[in-house]
Amino acid sequence: MTQRPTRRRLRRAALAGAFAGALLTGVLVAGAGTSQAATSQPCDIYAAGGTPCVAAHSTTRALYGTYSGPLYQVRRASDNTTRDIAPVSAGSYADAATQDSFCAGTSCLITIIYDQTGRNNRLTQAPPGGFNGPAAGGYDNLANATAAPVTVGGHKVYGVFVAPGTGYRNNATNGIARGDQPEGMYAIFDGTHYNGGCCFDYGNAETNSRDNGNGTMEAIYFGSNKVWGYGAGNGPWIMADLENGLFSGVNQRYNAGDPSISHRFLTAIVKGEPNHWAIRGGNAQSGSLGTFYNGARPNVAGYNPMKKEGAIILGIGGDNSVGAAGTFYEGVMTSGYPSDATENAVQANIVAAGYGTSGSTSGPAVGSNVSLRATTACCTTRYISHSGATVSTQVVSASSSATDKSNASFTVRAGLANSACVSFEARNAAGSYLRHQNYQLFLHANDGSALFASDATFCPQTGRNGQGNSFASANFPDRFIRHYSNNVYIASNGGSNAWDATGLWADDVSWVPAPAWA
């Protein structure tokens, strides 16, 4: 039986259409010059749609047109002082130049991601949980502040690079949905940086960092984990972490309508209300959103009604599971279930913001053949070299043997774990790459594992002493390739290992990618 729409329903539909059109018009006009702040940003759009933001996090830009407060805080290793990073003007992109100046010659970590709503739902270092943290129950790691350089509207900014073991959390929030209350959330991720670990999440979680049972979470998940649920293809997928399950739809295991999706900048959306939820997503650089699921709560006991607790997590699971990888740029949580029209307008704003990679620090070109020369004054004739599996620095010159020249020559490949980074394949040992193991570099054959890919991926940055490049480990982004006593390690600027010594650190982690000797 078809129910005839009432006059009230028709009027509501007409108003919703007019509202969506007005929002889209305002967003497109504001976004015409992507180097300027939009007059209406995502949280303004959500408020206009009747579902205001109750948490708003970003290290790249303001999420309100009038917001001029701090976006995030960094702490530098040299003296443990901190600095807040704000937009260059109200409603605009982050002032990365202030971070670069503050962190020059040392390394920095992101210590706080501020909440732009005024509710103080900021994200800080995640505490121990039911699943022990990296240090046997210790606090999670903090993200390297320079590991994810991108651009917004052509201006350099930084994202939050989450290596396994990194996590942020707030267990004492204000205004986040609890129980079966409706909410929505979106996040912008790097769709090429992910793994199958549990769990790269952003959203609503338990307030005690424990697994409190089915339905006690509602968070966006992104990755290729197939232990619980999955979508079409081999992943990665946008799914919902609802605790004790990653769900792609109503079924516990599989939803053919949830596609593998890996845009360089990815818009991911999860929203829920009583007995109803949805997954949406799209390319954050162009186009519209797709709806990958829209229907009833999962057909498994414990998820209807929901029992959400209202904590906020980033990069980890509800019980502090810390095995996942990903990169976060911005995200919000709302009070109430946003309409598709509101989310479509937010997507138009995101596209108009102009996320890009052109401002990222350039490293050696993929496909080029290089030799990596040290820049420390003692060692400017030394290059990274291998002898079998052993990696060290060796003096190489025009008069060196053909074997020595060949051992110091590498082909630059797209990063095995992150295509925005690089991997170094030996010129004379096809299929073998520089990789770290127990913090020391070796040359090993690629075994095809996710661990090897991460260990063999390094992200180029401007050389810490101003020369060439420094190469951050993809899975330990506060550690950089360093020579120490002629051996080669991944080293932090200060730490418990001898090769973490602060003396000459900036010089020792800076390398000039010279033309290959062979």
Automatic annotation (TrEMBL):
<dbReference type="InterPro" id="IPR015289">
    <property type="entry name" value="A-L-arabinofuranosidase_B_cat"/>
</dbReference>
<dbReference type="InterPro" id="IPR038964">
    <property type="entry name" value="ABFB"/>
</dbReference>
<keyword id="KW-0378">Hydrolase</keyword>
<keyword id="KW-0732">Signal</keyword>
<dbReference type="InterPro" id="IPR006311">
    <property type="entry name" value="TAT_signal"/>
</dbReference>
<dbReference type="Pfam" id="PF05270">
    <property type="entry name" value="AbfB"/>
</dbReference>
<keyword id="KW-0326">Glycosidase</keyword>
<comment type="similarity">
    <text>Belongs to the glycosyl hydrolase 54 family.</text>
</comment>
<dbReference type="Pfam" id="PF09206">
    <property type="entry name" value="ArabFuran-catal"/>
</dbReference>
<protein>
    <submittedName>
        <fullName>Alpha-L-arabinofuranosidase B</fullName>
    </submittedName>
</protein>
<dbReference type="InterPro" id="IPR036195">
    <property type="entry name" value="AbfB_ABD_sf"/>
</dbReference>
<feature type="domain" description="Alpha-L-arabinofuranosidase B arabinose-binding">
    <location>
        <begin position="372"/>
        <end position="512"/>
    </location>
</feature>
<keyword id="KW-0325">Glycoprotein</keyword>
<dbReference type="InterPro" id="IPR013320">
    <property type="entry name" value="ConA-like_dom_sf"/>
</dbReference>
<feature type="signal peptide">
    <location>
        <begin position="1"/>
        <end position="37"/>
    </location>
</feature>
<feature type="domain" description="Alpha-L-arabinofuranosidase B catalytic">
    <location>
        <begin position="42"/>
        <end position="355"/>
    </location>
</feature>
<dbReference type="InterPro" id="IPR007934">
    <property type="entry name" value="AbfB_ABD"/>
</dbReference>
